[in-house]
Specification:
It contains seven helices and twelve strands. By secondary structure, it is α/β, with parallel strands linked by helices. The chain has two domains: about 140 residues, Aspartate Aminotransferase, domain 2 (3-Layer(aba) Sandwich); about 100 residues, Aspartate Aminotransferase, domain 1, CATH 3.90.1150.160. The longest helix is centred in the middle third of the chain and has 38 residues. The relative contact order is 0.11.
Amino acid sequence: ARPNLVMGTNVQVCWEKFCDFWEVEARQVPMEGNRFHLDPQAAAELCDENTIGVVAVLGSTFDGSYEPVAEVCRALDDLQERTGLDIPVHVDGASGAMIAPFLDPDLRWDFQLPRVASINTSGHKYGLVYPGVGWALWRTAEVLPEDLVFRVDYLGGDMPTFSLNFSRPGSQVAAQYYTFVRLGRAGYRAVQQEARDVACSLAERIEAFGDFTLLSRGDQLPVFAFTTAEGVGAFDVYDVSRRLRERGWLVPAYAFPPNRQDLSVLRVVCRNGFSEDLADLFLADLGSLLPELRSQPAPTGKTVTAFHH
């Protein structure tokens, strides 16, 4: 039978690529109402004897929120008690796994949860290293099947490898090691806290305009999403994105995935280097655009300028 992988519709596109390339059925839990990420019970209900895992995202691409990894694990524990199905969890911590250890030490999302079998994260997002370096961790060596590991000795000595490509530059690995050593835990905590503080402050000030409704507040990932407030009909998020781009700010506007395609949002990502001063400049530009946007007879359409350098 065809294997399947359970995830929310808000996953990053890499998961859809994986399922397509390896002919795995992607079973996606849709967004419903004001729930914009994976529902634990709905995920468990999609599992069967062919399910190879459930993907929980620590930091959704769409709104920056953490998915409830511990609740997903509990739902799968209950499923195992009822049916005997033992479904592992993979945590996609591309961004959040470089935030939560430093800012949310009491949050249970990692190998503290027995059902979490593997975790990935990106060094080039909130890991503070240039692209592209990513990390994958398994709970134990037994979780990584031995037949996926190839051993070669023609470079001198035993060299196990399980990557899809062999020759890769090592500069990003050295850069990650250097950054870990240079900053340490305290340094990472300070950098990530600054990013979160800027995100939370900026979200509140955008909300204060009265033209927008926040969907997240930057208090998990330093990322937040917002849409036009109820009653705003002169402009939409695509108008805002287009006008901000004219000022040099790349703030994407996009529709949410099923079943909330009716909801279009803007997303702001605050990372290291996006200081309070830059946030003030961004807010000033946004505020200066609003009078003209409010005076429009109607939104100008959903066409957004294609990405370019």
